Each structure stands twice: as C-alpha cells, then as structure tokens.
Amino acid sequence: MSPIRVTVWNEFRHEKSDPKVAALYPEGIHGAIAKFLGAQGFETRTATLDEPEHGLTSEVLRNTDVLTWWGHMAHGAVQDEIVNRVYARVMEGMGLIVLHSGHMSKIFTKLMGTTCDLKWREIGEKERVHVIEPGHPIAQGLGESFEIPHAEMYGERFDIPAPDTLVFISWFQGGEVFRSGCCYHRGAGKVFYFRPGHETFPVYYQAEVQRVLTNAVRWAAPVAGPKITFGHRPQPVEHVEAYQG
Ligand code: ZN
User: Fold this and answer.
1) Cα of 92 from ligand 1 centre, angstroms
2) Most buried in the list 108, 143, 233, 241, measured by CB within 10 Å?
3) Which of 23-37, 87-101, 125-139, 227-241 has the lowest mean pLDDT?
4) Assigned domain for 234 exists
C-alpha cells in the first residue's frame, strides 16, 4: 500500500517575529510536525503562507491525502481562492486536521458554518485531556487521559456545530473545560479539530500529542468509496414502469 501523503501547512509568522517561538521551533511548527509524521512512514511535505498560492497549488492538493493546518495571526491573509480550493478537495475526500488556533481560520469556519469562537487565557496553566471515546481510532494507544503541563486555556462555549464524534474533552487548572478533539464528515472528506498546540509551549514535542496526530492522519485519510454524482435521473436504478395515470 502506498504511504499516506500529508501536507503540513503553517502560516509561519510567529517563528519569524518572536525569538521565543523561533527557539522552540527552529524549523517552524510545520517542520516539527512534518518530522514526527515522516518518522511514522507518511510521505510528508510542507507548505506555508508566504509561498506562491500559499504552497497549496492545485497539483499539491491533488497529491495530498491529508492536510494539517496551523494558523493564528494571519488568517485574513489567506486568499479566498485558496480556501475554496481546499474546501473543494475536502468535499472530494481529502482529510483536514485543524490545529489549535486554526479554529478561526477561513477554511475551518467555512466548513463549520459557525463563528468557531471561544474563550482563552494565556498563563501557562495545566491542561488535562480526557479520552471520552476509547474505541475511536484517534484514541489508539492513549491512556484514559494525559496532561499538558503548560498550555494556553481554551474554554467553552466553543461555537461549533455538535461534532459527529467527540473524542477528547480538556479540563484546565483555572476551571474551564473544552471540546478539544472533534470529528466531522464534510462531503466525502473527514475533518478533525485538535486543540493543543500553542506556539510558545513545546506541545508538538509531546509523545501523546504526536500519537493523536499520527492516529488522526490515518483516520482522516481518504477511503476508496463510490464517486458520488447528483442531478436528474431519467433512468431508475431498478426497473420500474412509469405511471401512465
Ligand atoms: Zn494559542
């Protein structure tokens, strides 16, 4: 079986403007994510905002099974034409994994149809991520819960449609809770939102987080399902005589 082809997208702005982020992710957040996914046997490539067409040409997307999306400070700089292109590929069956502050990206809000807004606080408090669907493929290999020692808090209400499957709920030291692992089907594609991943904490180096994203890539990869068609059907599937009335 040929390897799953993953494109790791990052707006790649914090790393250029904030020395703390640059020190934490010297090859960019995309570099760190592509590295551990590549080590799992996926065929990975990266793409960033400042490349032509944000690195997401039609050819790149055609050859992408799963796209991961990290954005935060420059959601508005993503061209609508590229957003529509990514959206069309999701409808065709490409998987999309939206990370952390990607909740406000154009592609995620378009796919959800809601504001996707939430509460937040940045004091480096503890987060406990609870697995609430132990039989889900994205939970494979995890314990009942895992801890992120220092995290940015995201709190409910998270203005999303109810997920098809909710895999994780986070609790924060400050008392808030959050739906932090949300699965959706959109067209023939699968979408997974995963909350952890703030740029000033080493979240993407954590084994449990890497495990979740590895599992999510496998879950979100396209399946060889039927090609769906729409429109007028003068020829019935079964033999049936037209009513002569
Ligand atoms: Zn953040």
Assistant:
1) 30
2) 108
3) 227-241
4) no
Ligand 1: centre distance to CA 25 (Å): 14
**What's the number of domains the chain is made of?**
1
Q: How far is CA 48 from CA 3, 18, 178, 225, in A?
A: 22, 17, 28, 30
With 90 as the cut, is the pLDDT of residue 71 above it? yes
Around ion ligand 1, residues with a beta carbon closer than 5 Å are 101, 152, 198
Distance separating alpha carbons of residues 121 and 97, to the nearest angstrom = 23
Q: What is the CATH number of the domain that holds 76?
A: 3.40.50.880
pLDDT at position 228 is: 86
Kindly report the number of other CB atoms within 10 A of residue 84's CB atom.
Answer: 13
Domain boundaries, position 94: 5-114+180-220
Residue 156 lies in a domain: no
Structure-token pair, residue 182: 């949300």
